[in-house]
Predict the 3D structure of the following.
Amino acid sequence: MKTNAVIKQEGIDALITKLGYVDAERCIVLMTSESFDYTKWREQALEEGLNVHQLSRKAMQYSEKI
C-alpha cells in the first residue's frame, strides 16, 4: 500500500505531466480554495468521458460560476 505522501507526489507529478507546471498549480489552487464536492464533480466528469483538456475547461467554467 502506498503512503499518503507517495500518493500526493504521484498526483502532483501526473498533473504536471498532463497540464504543465502553471496549469497544475492552478488546478491545485482551484480544488483547494473552493468549497465543492470534488468527488461528485469528478464522477460526473468521468461519466461524460471527458479528456484532460475538456475536464480542465469544465473546471474553469465551474470555478467562474462560484
